[in-house]
Design goal:
alpha/beta; DNA polymerase, domain 1; TIM Barrel; two-stranded parallel sheet; 11 helices
């Protein structure tokens, strides 16, 4: 008999389980407290449940927690954790903990591999090996030693969140609900290459921040490095985003990896200004992190600074994002999900 994983279940789902098993309804709230506030990894640890209830739960359910099989530590303090996919232990996924003063950010994965095929991304070159369950997504957050230090979550690891949207939304529900972690949704950022149907649904159902992987404002040039441009043009993505209010606490940002001689000149900066004009947003410039078998090169620092200054001078807020964890292949676009 397949056992249910409790990690990732909502209060309503746990209440349904309790009703099915003849347990008091309040037992569901107790389980939420053990799962999401106390981070238990065994049903036996739920000591305020009756012994009968715990024994029955052990017959039909598991917590769903499993610890990382490896951890690499960067010279800058960044840590990359390797997890096995729970339903296929031959597949691995990675998440990255980034300490920064009093902030602790975890970059989580939502898929093993990725379907998007972006030519510059190591993850995309691995192919697609399956969606992560809500349990596997949350396990990355709850099963690292730094879990109590986390202040922010970014869905910027392996995979395309809008391609596994149901489980991403269920994960953010756990993170933001009073019966879960109770976080503000503005502590969570979800990235996308711009899959419009999923993005629209996400914008309607969530208040989390959104980050769009842009990387080139010209349609044909973007399609050359990001095949999904053909199905979901960046101009249509921006048109969708203009339908929403970004003047409040929810933010929209655009991620822009800088490739030497490909997207880092004034022509691209001017087109980016034209594309984003009037949209309240931020552009994050990211240094390209070289990897084997890619023809791309990193933009020179002076070119990145000139690009940033041009955008800021023309009314588009722009910053250069600090690179973290490159020495352990933990930086943007380098997650491969390989057991070293």
């Amino acid at each position: 008999m397949t056992q249910t994983s409790l990690l990732g279940m909502s209060l309503a789902e746990l209440e349904g389980l309790c009703a099915d098993e003849g347990m008091p309804r309040y037992t569901a709230k107790q389980m939420c407290d053990w799962l999401y506030a106390k981070h238990v990894d065994s049903i036996d640890a739920m000591t305020n449940l009756s012994l009968k209830a715990r024994n029955r739960l052990k017959e039909i359910a598991v917590i769903g927690r499993h610890y990382p099989v490896n951890c690499q530590v960067s010279c800058d303090g960044t840590k990359k954790y390797l997890f096995q996919k729970s339903d296929d232990p031959s597949q691995y996924i990675e998440s990255v903990f980034i300490p920064d003063g009093d902030r602790g950010t975890l970059c989580v994965s939502c898929q093993a591999g990725c379907k998007m095929g972006c030519r510059f991304c190591v993850t995309g070159q691995q192919g697609f090996h399956g969606n992560l369950s809500v349990t596997d997504i949350l396990n990355q957050i709850f099963s690292i030693p730094e879990a109590p230090q986390l202040t922010n979550i970014v869905f910027m690891g392996m995979g395309e969140p809008m391609d596994n949207l149901d489980n991403v939304l269920r994960s953010t529900e756990v993170l933001t609900s009073p019966w879960g972690l109770g976080w503000s949704p503005h502590r969570i950022t979800v990235s996308t290459v711009g899959i419009i149907p999923g993005l629209k649904r996400f914008l309607d159902e969530s208040q989390c921040h959104v980050a769009v992987s842009l990387h080139n404002p010209f349609a044909k040039e973007r399609e050359d490095i990001m095949p999904m441009q053909k199905a979901y043009p960046i101009a249509d993505v921006v048109a969708l985003l203009r339908q929403y209010d970004w003047s409040g606490q929810r933010r929209i940002s655009f991620e822009y990896i800088m490739f030497r001689g490909l997207n880092d000149d004034t022509r691209h900066a001017a087109e980016l200004v034209r594309l984003l004009k009037g949209l309240y947003c931020r552009v994050n410039l990211i240094r390209f992190h070289s990897s084997p078998d890619t023809p791309f090169k990193t933009s020179l620092p002076k070119d990145m600074e000139r690009f940033r200054d041009y955008l800021n001078a023309h009314g588009v807020i722009c910053t250069i994002r600090a690179s973290r964890g490159e020495d352990i292949m933990a930086a943007c676009g380098l997650l491969a999900g390989k057991n070293q």
